[in-house]
Write a structure and sequence with these properties.
Order of helices and strands: HH
Mean pLDDT: 86
Shape: extended
Strand content: under 5%
Oligomer: single chain
Distance between the termini: 56 Å
Number of strands: 0
């Protein structure tokens, strides 16, 4: 009896504000990288095609900035 382990990889896209991180994450999704979480909803004025940032990560980022008075 043989067992097969599924290998998983984590890809993290980091960058400064307005540096193309959402576009890069969107491109990664097109080539097969899956997202297992709820993503930030599109904004009809700023980004009508949608964002590719997980809501949970954005919330953590907001708390870090808030706790540092940023």
């Amino acid at each position: 009896m043989s067992t097969t382990k599924e290998l998983k990889k984590l890809i993290v896209v980091l960058g400064m504000h307005r540096s193309g991180t959402s576009a890069m994450a969107g491109a990664l999704s097109v080539v097969g990288c899956g997202f297992n979480s709820k993503l930030v909803k599109a904004d009809k004025f700023d980004n009508p095609k949608g964002y590719w940032e997980p809501v949970e990560v954005v919330n953590i980022n907001d708390r870090v900035f808030s706790s540092n008075n940023m």
